[in-house]
């Protein structure tokens, strides 16, 4: 009799735990490692106008190193490519997009800085780039200080714009636009004398058919830009999962493949894969 009672109680516990498991799979945001996204979508922030990194093509598809990293990470979180909804996150919008919960994570040439870490958390780094200058092929600008008194374009909310005023050319006439594609168009028209941001981004623009032979990179390595994947402040669970995904991407050869595919055409000589958690100051 006693034995039968225990058996009935165990069955009830088992039924309850099965019900709980079934409920757990319905969450849209279910990002459990290796689990399926449950048919839901995941929103990921990228840039839309940076060739080789994050680009929305005329047919609506996406390409670039950041897009490949974002897609690999999503796969590790349980989402297939068709479950990813890319959202444009411009430089000045990134912290707010995460705080509002517009996107789950951001892969958008997003440098890890102490200032930004007050507002968001970062996984990574997954790439080390350096600030540089893009000028016309016949320009005599060879160093940052040559830009004092000249018109220099960068993007609002970027580390590149901050560094100009802090150290590179404090007396330059800095024009801040909302995207690098606008800066590059201004360089072509002669509205500005140079564009400054990460060499990875500038190399991607310089290799575009319409700009071939017109521009050159100064090759100055003006800063270290450790690209991280931004997540909402406090979401350490997602940070840990993304770090695991990035480690796997490097060890299974997918990171190098994405580098070759996306930076090869721009002839961009990238640094080797960074160690997760190690920031180059
Ligand atoms: N990596 C730099 C930054 O996060 C410049 C590129 C960008 O604006 O995305 O500010």
Automatic annotation (TrEMBL):
<keyword id="KW-0813">Transport</keyword>
<dbReference type="InterPro" id="IPR051455">
    <property type="entry name" value="Bact_solute-bind_prot3"/>
</dbReference>
<comment type="similarity">
    <text>Belongs to the bacterial solute-binding protein 3 family.</text>
</comment>
<dbReference type="InterPro" id="IPR018313">
    <property type="entry name" value="SBP_3_CS"/>
</dbReference>
<feature type="signal peptide">
    <location>
        <begin position="1"/>
        <end position="22"/>
    </location>
</feature>
<dbReference type="GO" id="GO:0005576">
    <property type="term" value="C:extracellular region"/>
</dbReference>
<dbReference type="InterPro" id="IPR001638">
    <property type="entry name" value="Solute-binding_3/MltF_N"/>
</dbReference>
<feature type="domain" description="Solute-binding protein family 3/N-terminal">
    <location>
        <begin position="41"/>
        <end position="266"/>
    </location>
</feature>
<protein>
    <submittedName>
        <fullName>Glutamate ABC transporter substrate-binding protein</fullName>
    </submittedName>
</protein>
<keyword id="KW-0732">Signal</keyword>
<dbReference type="Pfam" id="PF00497">
    <property type="entry name" value="SBP_bac_3"/>
</dbReference>
<dbReference type="GO" id="GO:0006865">
    <property type="term" value="P:amino acid transport"/>
</dbReference>
<dbReference type="GO" id="GO:0030288">
    <property type="term" value="C:outer membrane-bounded periplasmic space"/>
</dbReference>
């Amino acid at each position: 009799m006693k034995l039968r009672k225990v058996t009935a109680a165990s069955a009830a516990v088992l039924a309850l735990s099965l019900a709980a498991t079934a409920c757990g799979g319905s969450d849209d945001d279910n990002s459990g490692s290796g689990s399926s996204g449950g048919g839901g979508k995941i929103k990921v922030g990228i840039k839309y106008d940076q060739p080789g990194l994050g680009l929305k093509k005329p047919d609506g598809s996406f390409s670039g190193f950041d897009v490949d990293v974002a897609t690999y990470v999503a796969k590790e979180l349980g989402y297939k490519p068709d479950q990813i909804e890319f959202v444009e996150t411009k430089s000045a919008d990134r912290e707010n997009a995460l705080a509002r919960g517009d996107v789950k994570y951001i892969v958008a040439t997003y440098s890890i800085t102490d200032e930004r870490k007050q507002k968001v958390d970062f996984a990574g780094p997954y790439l080390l780039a350096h600030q540089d200058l893009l000028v016309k092929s016949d320009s005599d600008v060879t160093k940052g200080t040559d830009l004092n008194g000249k018109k220099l374009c960068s993007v609002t909310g970027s580390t590149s714009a901050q560094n100009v005023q802090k150290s590179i050319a404090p007396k330059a006439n800095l024009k801040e636009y909302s995207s690098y594609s606008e800066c590059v168009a201004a360089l072509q028209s002669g509205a500005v004398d140079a564009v400054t941001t990460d060499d990875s981004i500038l190399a991607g623009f310089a290799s575009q058919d319409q700009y071939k032979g017109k521009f050159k990179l100064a090759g100055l390595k003006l800063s270290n830009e450790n690209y991280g994947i931004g997540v909402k402040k406090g979401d350490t669970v997602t940070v840990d999962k993304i770090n695991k995904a990035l480690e796997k991407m490097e060890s299974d050869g997918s990171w190098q493949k994405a580098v070759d595919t996306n930076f090869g055409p721009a002839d961009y000589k990238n640094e080797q894969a960074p160690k997760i958690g190690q920031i180059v100051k």
